[in-house]
Amino acid sequence: MSTLTEWAYPLAESLLAEPLPRRWKHCLGVAERARTIALILDQDADLLEAAAVLHDIGYAPDLAKTGFHPLDGARYLRDVAAADEQVVNLVAHHSCSWLEADARGLRAELDSEFPRESEHLNDALCYCDMNTTPDGTPTNPVDRINEITGRYGPDSLIGKFIRRAEPEILACTCRVLERVAAAKRQPM
Questions:
Q1: Nearest to 15 by CA among 70, 54, 72
Q2: Can you point out the beta strands (E) in 91-150?
Q3: How many other CB atoms are found less than 10 A from the CB of residue 90?
C-alpha cells in the first residue's frame, strides 16, 4: 500500500522543482519539520507530511489562477489530482490563509469550498511552514514573519496579512511545542 507521501513528493516536485526551485526547497524543508513533530501526530504523520510538501503548489505557474496560492493549490489537488480530502483542506487553509483570503475578498470561496481540518492539524502545518525559511532551513516564526514582511513590504497585502496573522501564528507554534513537550514527558 502506498502512502500519501509517496504520492505527494513526486507531484510537488513536478510542479515546483523546475519553475520555482527555491519554493521547492521551502516545501522540502516544511516536510522535514513535519517529520520532526511526528510524535504528536500518530496516524496523521503521513497526512501532515504530504500536506507540507504540497502546501505551496498553488504558486506553480500552471496552477496560479486567482493569485491566492492556497486556493489555487487546493483546487488543483481536488479537481485534477484527486487528492485526499484532508490534504486538500490543509493546503487550502495553511498558515492562517483565511486571513489573507479576507484581504483578497476570497474568504467566502475558500470557506465554502474547503472546510477547515482540526485545530491540531492546522496548527501543525502552520508550525512547519512558519518555522522554515524560503530556502528550506529551520527558523523561528518571529524571524519568518519579519522575512515575509521584508520581502513583500510592510504596506503590501501580504505584509499587512502576515502582521495580522502574527498572533495566531505564534499561538499555533506554542500549541505545537506544548504538545511536543507533553509527548516527550509521556512514559514509553
A1: 54
A2: none
A3: 30
Separation between Cα atoms, residue 109 and residue 26, nearest integer Å: 27
Determine the 3-state secondary structure of 132 from DSSP: strand
Cell matching residue 154: 510592510
CA–CA separation, 90 vs 135, rounded Å? Answer: 22
pTM > 0.90: yes
N- to C-terminal Cα separation, the chain:
28
Q: How far is CA 38 from CA 43, 45, 87, in A?
A: 9, 5, 16
| 145-181 pLDDT, tens digit each | 999 999 999 999 999 999 999 999 999 999 999 999 9
Ramachandran angles phi, psi of 131, nearest 5°: -115, 25
Tens digits of per-residue pLDDT, 56-95? 999 999 999 999 999 999 999 999 999 999 999 999 999 9
Q: Decide: helix, strand or coil at residue 138.
A: strand
Instruction: Compute how many other C-beta atoms are within 10 angstroms of the C-beta atom of residue 118.
Output: 12
Residue 99: what residue type? L
d(CA 21, CA 19): 6
Which residue has 516564526 as its cell numbers?
A: 141
Taking the C-alpha atoms of residue 11 and residue 80, their distance in angstroms, rounded to an integer, is 11
How many angstroms separate the CA atoms of 136 and 33, rounded? Answer: 9
